């Protein structure tokens, strides 16, 4: 007999994250977006619960519950507000980059330096090798990132990691998505590097964790968009019956939810591989590609199901669409993940997106 349940501990964690999202994030998501920040009281409550350290080692103050737990928590928080979900995890993917390169000592050191609520670390993936280092100094920029404050900048390449804590220029931007976490251009110019490592194996592991975290944010927001559109279609009446009962729209709603479930399965497999110590580079890249591609499909169609109302701020789907598009730009998006998803160069290993597989009858 195969047991697909999460287990008592993971079920409790999932329920706690869902309740926090429903009570603290979802009702206030528009306020967070307008203020470009999550209130310190909410940040502190999330920290007290331990969302940001759910998968950290116990010796570093974490719960040591693994990548699957992190994914389950992040999905639920992102369903309420993905920008807030980013802000609630101040070290975010930087934590696992530190673990991969410097071990628990590096994580504890930098976690202490970001101990105050509101402090933020940012992980940038230099997939185009455009960041330049001269000796112990680093120069480069990110034209947009969901942060209005950066206390620790981690620049990850395919071969190593560099950390910068001083001389980080943050220029606020208007931003279209994820504004609850902020929106800024980040720049460093011949800034001293605090620490640096070179290890391609560690780089691949850190990148896999980062892609899994990002995919979880996307899946959580995709589910929120698809579910809101479904409920709206069941309540909106046209031609004497709910619009969800019209065949074409019913098929579209099913396709949207199927796309969410398909992406979630790939994501959970990648997280399981990380927990099991198995190679996860291709699985994490595949999960991110599917998430980014299906996010475009779900976000735009959730708006279309509501018609003209979908573009109004009275309904959340216009925000869902913006958030999903913005999330798809991080870590180089699907384009940067394709080479890793191809494995050793065998095109047959490339992921087949839900849409390309003919889910819409193609």
TrEMBL record:
Cofactor(s) this protein requires: FAD
UniProt key word Chloroplast: no
Domain Acyl-CoA dehydrogenase/oxidase N-terminal, first and last residues per copy: 8-105
Domain Acyl-CoA dehydrogenase/oxidase C-terminal: 203-333
Keyword RNA-binding in annotation: no
Keywords attached to this entry: FAD, Flavoprotein
Top-level taxon of the source organism: Bacteria
Xref: PANTHER family: ACYL-COA DEHYDROGENASE, ISOVALERYL-COA DEHYDROGENASE, MITOCHONDRIAL-RELATED
Protein family per UniProt: Belongs to the acyl-CoA dehydrogenase family.
Protein name as annotated: Acyl-CoA dehydrogenase
